[in-house]
Design brief:
This is ATP-dependent 6-phosphofructokinase. Its cofactor is Mg(2+). Keywords: Allosteric enzyme, ATP-binding, Cytoplasm, Glycolysis, Kinase, Magnesium, Metal-binding, Nucleotide-binding, Transferase. This protein starts with a strand and ends with a helix. The mean pLDDT is 93. An 8-stranded mixed sheet has the order 1-12-11-6-5-2-3-4, sandwiched between helices. The protein has a 4-stranded parallel sheet with strand order 8-9-7-10, with helices on both faces. The chain folds into 2 domains: 200 residues, Rossmann fold (3-Layer(aba) Sandwich), CATH 3.40.50; 117 residues, Rossmann fold (3-Layer(aba) Sandwich), CATH 3.40.50. It contains 11 helices and 12 strands. The relative contact order is 0.19. It is an alpha/beta fold. The structure holds adenosine-5'-diphosphate (ADP), 1,6-di-O-phosphono-beta-D-fructofuranose (FBP) and magnesium ion (MG). The site of 1,6-di-O-phosphono-beta-D-fructofuranose has 13 residues, from loops.
């Protein structure tokens, strides 16, 4: 991991890059638009051309390119989703698909690409960069916050706040009825949203794919803690939990404890939408500028990251190959406050 220039901004000298393509890929995340805006405007400020590539790698293969002027990215800073659209593109996983994509970039004279996405998108960029001479730089954007080498990914803060708002509301009705709610949050292989959402909402149990021990805590909670029918409780379940998601776990709990009043709530895609919170807008803006700065300093195959709130460069190789680990201290915080 290397640190970028201490003064954030554009510090390039004489790069030959003239036209930069910008795309969003994988699951959308609130703040992607802020990154598009920053990358577009800093490219133009550097005297280069900015081009949007629509629908992620699918648009690269199909040659769906949109020249971007500064005014094209006006009024998008506060919008969720992505103005460039996104996709999960099977064809890009094949050498043939990537060859076609490379030909389209050459034909449009796009000589560098900024990829705003998650681990899958960076894996694709890394594979393609080994097959052709076009430099790629990544900006991490996923509500899962599961990238190695960065403390933060765009969209996570907004999604976490959406989870907290939803669970607070569910708690009102859980308390009124004396019910136990199993609430499923997103994160197919990542438990950070469930863990921090659970801590922020005072959940009684948090089940995440990174810690099997929490299933014992669920059994203790169901057996000891909730004999009293007046009591309510929240069990947060990360969708990727290996026991099978909230539905499966709740059904099992109900079978084992027929006296409990159990309900299930799957928060779903509501967690991915909405206007980005201030932190996501600010960091997306910083990362958008840092990505252009990196390309114009002849960097390639790196992801822009944040380490203790400082911009860093992380090689794609590391970012996609290493696992993002969960801070077990956070689980201890949760267990301590729940008397486990
Ligand atoms: N091993 C791979 N080789 C080539 N392209 C890939 C690879 N993994 C992912 N991609 C591309 O990146 C896209 C986004 O990846 P995905 O995992 O869906 O989302 P995210 O980038 O948010 O993790 C995929 O649809 C595919 O086009
Ligand atoms: O919207 P889809 O394609 O069903 O994907 C759902 C998945 O996307 C996410 O919201 C984000 O994942 P990625 O950032 O890796 O795309 C996961 O939390 C969730 O499991
Ligand atoms: Mg991913």
């Amino acid at each position: 991991m290397t640190r970028n220039n201490d003064n954030e901004g554009l510090s390039f000298t004489s790069s030959r890059i003239k036209k930069i393509g910008i795309l969003t890929s994988g699951g959308d995340a609130p703040g992607m638009n802020a990154a598009i805006r920053a990358a577009t405007r800093s490219t133009i400020a550097a005297g280069r051309e900015a081009v949007g590539i629509l629908r992620g790698y699918q648009g690269m293969i199909d040659g769906e390119f949109l020249p971007l002027q500064s005014s094209d990215v006006s009024g998008i800073l506060q919008l969720g989703g992505t103005m460039l659209k996104t996709a999960r593109c099977k064809a890009f996983r094949t050498p043939e698909g990537r060859r076609k994509a490379g030909e389209q970039l050459k034909a449009a004279a796009i000589d560098a690409v900024i990829v705003i996405g998650g681990d899958g998108s960076f894996t694709g960029a890394w594979v393609m960069s080994q097959e052709c001479d076009i430099p790629f730089v990544g900006i991490p954007a996923t509500i899962d916050n599961d990238m190695y080498g960065t403390d933060y990914t765009i969209g996570y803060e907004t999604a976490l706040n959406s989870v907290v708002c939803a669970v607070d509301k569910i708690k009102d009705t859980a308390r009124s009825h004396g019910r136990i709610f199993f609430i499923e949050v997103m994160g197919h292989e990542a438990g950070l949203l469930a863990l921090n959402g659970g801590i922020a909402c005072g959940a009684e149990v948090i089940l995440i794919p990174e810690s099997k021990a929490q299933h014992d805590e669920l059994q203790k909670f169901l057996e000891k803690g909730y004999r009293d029918k007046e009591s309510s409780g929240i069990v947060m379940v990360a969708e990727g939990d290996e026991a099978g998601g909230a539905l499966h776990i709740a059904e099992q709990a109900q079978r084992d404890h027929p006296d409990l009043d159990v309900r299930i709530s799957i928060l779903g895609h509501i967690q991915r939408g909405g206007s980005p919170v201030a932190r996501d807008r600010i960091n997306a803006t910083r990362m958008g500028i840092a990505a252009v700065d990196a390309l114009l300093n002849d960097q390639k195959s790196i992801m822009i990251g944040l380490d203790n709130d400082r911009i860093v460069h992380v090689t794609f190789n590391k970012a996609v190959k290493m696992n993002h680990s969960i801070d077990t201290g956070l689980l201890e915080v949760h267990n301590l406050l729940n008397g486990m």
